[in-house]
């Protein structure tokens, strides 16, 4: 059950998102009241956490809502009941959003079905390919969705109904069934209780106690003189539920005989704070985990990769004549296996019989590392290496590297939020930050400055793969990062101001402007932009070739180099 404090925490977080937006892309119609600011920030916060889009400028491009665009640009168009459209080309998902932000907390009011039905207008126009009446960004997004649905690829089609109300509309509501059956649209309601789990607030230390048979536990010491031990254990899934639940008393009660008391406990999301994946709302791997638990619980140990835990300290003692051991985990975190833990809890919530019929009969491999004598960097390496065997993007994996953590800490001193994971809004709740830049966006910025603006957009994954050492280690001085970020956002602001001159902002243009600035250090940003716009006109390319397609060609980048060389001679 969501409480009023969850409502207030969310409001404060959303206001921060609004303030960062207003700094990077100043609003034509700035908001005055706290609730009005929070309403706009709510869009950004939810898009970041659901779509894993951390860059503010990219988030804004997804938003079709009339009122949001009117506040930002001074004008907007009818959104046809859909407030944002995100097309995930990596996972083949089309995500539509319907947002509703309530200004006042109500302990009794939940989501209404009418808000969801409003989105049917946009969905109907897509399914029947009738775009009459749609204009601007809304029409462009609808056209893009239709192109995906008409392709040979299989696409997921989802509508997220998102509000800060205390209760979500039932996913099995008859009206939602009509949307699902008529349009093949999966409706996913999200309300305050679920949002409260997303909010990244560093948890209080989480502790738990375990009892294990001798044959289910193996200790490990890095060397014979080491003062602390780590362990590899075989744990029942029901014990995973107990030690990761949100009830401290149950986490310490290692001798529970009646498992029914575990059937209604919830996951304490604080144990996943340092998990590489952060908060994952839906995952294609979760269904496989549930199937294994339900159909072959006794073989789950063989099918699952296991869980990795780090604890600040581990106390152990033998009991029952040395036949069992008690482990006391102090201040522990799950670094790897977060999806397994989440899915076990979700499965447990399906029915009161699950805990005894399935989870008590399945086991999981658990590695428990004692980090009492390790530096933070060792913990990050454990997280990075144990996650590297799973289906995690290079970007998420590198968020744990020492270079990225050092960047986050360094930029904090310059009042810049370096967002390594979803939901990052800085270390301080009170500090006024200048910028927020996503880790992947900064990688693209560095790659452009280092001479590859043509590759920065369509080779983003490679920046954190085969180019990683080149970009972040060999050709990078951390002391230059604040100035680089300031210049990047200055370019964004200049493009925003020049829209009145007919200059259209574009991500690739930002990267080229950064690159040109390294060649012509005395030019103003305005002069750089005008030069680039002239080059785009001058460059010989087929008329049907779009501007972005031209700019990702090495030939285009070489053409710019040649033009710059002519100007210097």
Helix tally equals 26
Number of strands: 12
The CATH topology of the largest domain is Restriction Endonuclease
Main sheet makeup = 6 strands, mixed
Shape: globular
How are the strands of the largest sheet arranged? 5-9-8-10-7-6
Looking at the overall shape, the CATH architecture of the largest domain is: 3-Layer(aba) Sandwich
Radius of gyration: 26 Å
Overall pLDDT score: 86
Low-confidence region ranges: none
User: Which class do the helix and strand fractions yield?
Assistant: alpha/beta
What's the domain count? 3
Strand content: 5-15%
CATH class of the largest domain: Alpha Beta
Question: Ends: how far apart?
Answer: 70 Å
Fraction of residues in helix: 40-55%
